[in-house]
Amino acid sequence: MLVIGIAGGTGSGKTTVVNKIINSLPQGEVAVLPQDSYYRDASHIPVAERCNINFDEPAAIEWELLERHLRDLKEGRTIEMPTYSYLTCTRQAETVRVEPRDVVIIEGILILTQPELCRLMDVKVFVDADADDRLIRVISRDCIERGRTPQMVIDRYEAILKPMHQLYIEPSKRHADLIVPQGGNNRVAVQLLTDYIGSRLHAGLDR
Length: 207
Fold this sequence. Notes:
By secondary structure, the protein is an alpha/beta fold. The protein has a single domain, classed as 3-Layer(aba) Sandwich (Rossmann fold). 38% of the residues lie in helices and 20% in strands. A hairpin with a 4-residue loop joins strand 3 and strand 4.
């Protein structure tokens, strides 16, 4: 099993890179564990206060469960991945069954901040992008998917996203084996990564 971690700031193009990798490989060979699925449940917090949750700090993620699930997959066991609603800030009753695959991708803004999780990865990737480009993508995504207004997104960016990026995400870049500038639009870097994955699969994942 080849475990790939793909990190980067909010709106950097991580999902684009992940999708390009998946589409370049035979169907069914890749399993994806999004960090966002492992946000801690906030159902115990009053609804009016949930808008103050900081989703961009490591404490927001149940890392222990993510690491345990990754180990289970590496040992050939199927997992039940949690699902999370940004609209209610709660973990849902439904889970997603994920079976072991030749390639497992862990994707999320904070995954390279966790030393133990990094030790379980074979390749660590940081998707880099200009701050203005990231903000534009975040505004578009949050207004459509999370019911926020543009001003709400900008206020949250200034108060939380930007300082958390500088405190946690940007420094985690030094742990990456490969940095992909220009986000998912860097076709050369994405092709190099997919070629490497393909060669490992063809060689039976032998190191």
